[in-house]
Structure formats: C-alpha cells, structure tokens
C-alpha cells in the first residue's frame, strides 16, 4: 500500500478535518490540543497510509451452536487489506474452538488492540492502535452489539478529538466506559483518559482541570494500563510509551516510568508515581480484595512487578507509593511488553512476557513472600503471548499470541504464531498448556488473522451471567 510522509500541520489537518469524520455531538471538550512544550522534543513525523476501503470480505460459514462459554477475539486481517473483525468462538468443552460468527468493521489496518464488555454484556468495544494512520475519519474505537451473543453486529465507531491510540477499557457500573487513549490526536504525548456515556458517546477527555493539565505537560502522559476501585474512589493509570516514537521515521522509542493516581468521582489526578528506569509501565491492576487497595504494575524494561500502595504517603507527603514486588529475572528484561491478570480471589497472578515467549505465574497469597510457580527457563508452547484473561469460572486463562506488528512503517514487530491459548489453571495455580485455536488457518483467505485481545462470556447460569 502506498504511503507518504507529511508535515505536522498536515497531520493535524487530516486528524481534525477529514471530510468523513463526524465527531460525537456535544463532546464537552474543555482543553485545546496539547503537544510537547519544548519544540526540541517534537519527534519525527509518522508515515500515513492511503485511506483505501477494505477489500470485500470473503464469505464464511457460521455455526448455529449456542455454547454457554463464548470467546470474542478482536482481530486484524493478516494482510491489512481486508476489514478487521470480531471473531466469535465456542469455549465449551464439547465444542471448543468451533467457529460461530465473524463481524467485520468497515475499515482495515486498525491494528485491533484491546477489547472490553459493557456492564450489561450488550456491547463490546474494541480499540484500534494504528487507526489514525489510515486517515479513515481517524475512528479509533469500534462498538459491537452483542445482545444476541451468537451473532455480534457492528454498531458504530467514533474518535476522541484530543486523543488516539485506544488501549485499556473498563465498564462503568451505570453504563458507558472509561478508556485510556495512549497518545494525543497525532500520537504524541499527552494522551487522555476518555469517558463515554451508556450509548458510547464520548463525553469527557481527562484531565480537564488546570492542575491536571499542568501535570500531564510536566511529565509524559501516555496511559495504557487502567484499573478502577469503585469502592475506594480511586483510579490508577500507567504510562507506557509515546506512540509516535515507535513509527518511522523515529529518533528511537520513548518509554515512560510513571503512573497516575486519580480521584475517581472528581476525575482529577492526585499524584504522579515514579518507578525509576521502569522503561514502560504497561499494565496496572488492583489486587482483588486487598484491604489497602494495593495494585501490581509491570515495568517492562526492568522485567519487574512493582506494588503500588495508593493510600500510603512517601517521605515528602505525596500520596501513592511504589515498591519493588518481584523481579521476573534476566529472561524478562527489555522484552517489549508485559501484561497481566489475577484470579478473582487475588491469590494467583499471571503475566505474559511477549518477546520472551513466556507466561509467568505467581502465588501472591502472601504479599511479603510471593512464590513463582513456573520455571523461567522452561520453553513454553507459545510465541508472542500478550493479552491475558482469567476465565470467569477461574479454571483457565485465555492468552492471545500476538502483540504488535507495525510492518515497514514502524519499529515494533514482535514474533507471533497468531493462536489463542486456552490454558488450564491447576489447583496450586500453576499452568497446564493444552487447547489452542489457530487463526492462521481459519482466516487464510484474508491473509490470516491477528487476534490481539479477548472477551469471555460465561452464560452457564442464566441468572448470573459473567462478562469479562
């Protein structure tokens, strides 16, 4: 596909004046677009792709089975010419891996990223990592109607006016979402914490106050990880990388070392928490049932897990303290990506180390003495593991073997086998590798499939369905 390099002003013009783009009504934006305050820090400009329409999708044969456990996988077409899509599969034991349905979005080359369900399980939202580069109205979030869980339908797409690079998604109890957008509208710092209403309309792009604006201009704000403690009224976001610096031409990837602690109800930043030389704090999640609302964060360059205490104060009286929790060892250092999840009881913690081709398992029932359950030197049957979720029944983890492949336009191209791993959790928390779904074979007629993320529905008990 043809590509062209454009100047910064042209990039802004594409991002904001594309004739196809239709912003949400009443976006309630209170801040102007923001960029680096030091002109010397403005990175080289990325290569945009010609916004051609997707190649017409080939026909597929769906299935009428109605499993109780359903896996949804937000997937990129292998050749970036066909439309990106949501793939629906059975996760039931007797029909595991049986393909149910495919739902195209109207665009291609988005590099599908994270996927999340609404609180009522009627909507899924998937983000596009590289959507803005296609100049296709710059829509970076795609919504699916899953009111019929066996026949997902594309609903709509939208974009934020101040931000792009859609990442982590958390459903609000009253409907709608909180979403981290890792970059500005043109992929620089700062990004935003975006909020939608129950209809998926963007209603806020935080921070919106003067102090918060000053905070995100002082230090890079490129939020990737997102965790919300609705009961304790706090949010944690973690800063990963300045997105535009992984795209050519580049002076080199710029990774971040910080997290932000937020007041949930006010949607305001309380403090910035530093992990020295963290080299990308990709993920952060609150430990289930922890009385201090402690969280674990992944420091990618260090190959370490850090514990965050949001209600403790440091020696200078600043709220929020970070301490080293566990060093994953030399095989985990400088490995591009480390993403994580917990069992619901907070006892076990799992982390994918993408370019180490490894999934680490920890028993964290005693936070003062975490125990490693995997052999860090073991060769596991996985290539490029990234997105990970513990299934609602707590018996398995679902891992997608694909992170990011920017191709010729970028510098991040991680090896992958494009499989979904369905891994058994043993009683002691260790892992038993077993079943897989191979997306290269299923979608060979569109260049293969690159599954980045997943959502799992468990409808075993119709009175208590789980959406995760």
Description:
The chain has 468 residues and is mainly beta. The strands form 8 sheets. The chain has a 5-stranded antiparallel beta sheet. The model is unreliable at 1-43 (pLDDT under 50). The longest helix is centred in the N-terminal third of the chain and has 10 residues, at 8-17. The chain is built from 3 helices and 31 strands. It has helices at residues 8-17, 210-218, 439-442, and strands spanning 3-5, 47-49, 69-77, 85-90, 99-104, 112-117, 123-128, 141-145, 153-158, 163-171, 177-184, 192-196, 202-206, 223-229, 234-239, 258-263, 268-274, 281-286, 295-299, 304-313, 319-327, 338-342, 348-353, 358-363, 371-372, 388-390, 396-400, 419-425, 431-438, 449-458, 466-467. Helix content is 5%, strand content 40%.
Précis, in short:
This protein has three helices and 31 strands. By secondary structure, the protein is mainly β. The strands form eight sheets. It has a five-stranded antiparallel sheet.
Note the main attributes of this structure.
40% strand; mainly beta; disordered N terminus; single chain; 31 strands; 468 residues; 4-stranded antiparallel sheet; 5-stranded antiparallel sheet; 5% helix
- Look at the helices and sheets and give the structural class: mainly beta
Gyration radius from CA atoms, angstroms: 21 Å
**CA(first)-CA(last) distance:** 36 Å
Count, helices: 3
**Quick check: average pLDDT?**
90
Q: What's the quaternary structure here?
A: single chain
Helix content: under 10%
**Morphology:** globular
Main sheet: strands, sense, barrel: 5 strands, antiparallel
Number of strands: 31
Query: Can you tell me the residue ranges where pLDDT is under 50 for at least 5 consecutive residues?
Result: 1-43
Task: Assess the beta-strand content as a share of residues.
Answer: 35-45%
Reading side by side through the largest sheet, how are the strands ordered?
5-4-3-30-31
